[in-house]
What we know:
alpha/beta, Rossmann fold
Amino acid sequence: MASQPHIDELRAAITAIDESLLDLLRRRMELAGDVGRVKAEAGLPVVARDVEERVLSRARQHADACGVSEDVMVAIFQAIMRGSVERQHRVGVHRRRQRGGRVLIVGGAGAMGHWLSSFLPLVGHRVDVADPAGAPAAPVERYCARLDEVDDLAAYDFIVVAVPLAVTPSVLAEVVARRPPGLVVEIASIKSHLAPVLEQADRSQVRVSALHPMFGPGKSPYEPLTFVLACREDVERERQRVETLLRHPYTEVIAIPFDHHDRLMGWLLGLAHLTSMVFGAALAGSGLTAHELRECASTTFLRQVATAMSVLSEDPALYFDIQRLNPHRVAVYRATRAALEQLVGQVEAGDADGFCSTLASARHAVSGD
């Protein structure tokens, strides 16, 4: 058994190496900053996927020599590259501001409005906010309590409507009535109930893009950021308009037909949220405490708890509206009930073959394999 003094010596040696690693990381980030300045001046993209893959390939090749798995080496260098991308992007913000636009966020004090008021300046835009709930925590150029206090909507290249789902139609109608020449972008999770005001926008020749961030307000801007664009006209023209707003190294815009959006979200959001809510509600009726469940928890249970808490810890009114306003919810609920009844029936009947067949079909539906 190793003596305490020997362990202390080894730990001291590790600490010295850690300090050397931190010095090397500092130098790497300084070089990343230099690269970022060059890219910003030349208008080049921050992320170079081919370069990233070469870095990860080298990491995999050295995994055995370091005595760890390839997964560990890849995770280490992915974290380092995320730091480099953040550094490159941050040092180029001033240069991008010279090419950025002016943005008004209606509802900037809300959760996603606050996220956008922090994110869009990183892209290079100048941001103002109108929200009766108060100014956002992130610093903005100008704050107004009400939309009608904003004198000139024509001054904005983009007007982003980031308000609760239920009031999005009325707020969007208020914006459209003033006929701003810039692009209006709404970010509602459900789109069907917006159809009448979007038709009014068409008649008024107001350009509106129906965008949907597929992440919550806790998302880091230096992780992949997927936006779904529900297109009502030419796909490429609509994509180009919103990509001007979202030009950032980690954004990806997925274009789908407007009429398909809510059906897709019925499963991507409605079902995913529903399973988390049912999981929590069922536990509430179990008679067991959270402490004793966690104390003996399996890995699967803990993963499910983490997923459920990402829903249960957010605003319940938002999740209620996502369920209530989606016209495709009936199909989701019907399929959920049928799946539960099928599995319960197979278990109670002792039908192992049927149970295995159901899980095989489920696995194919989830993985595509």
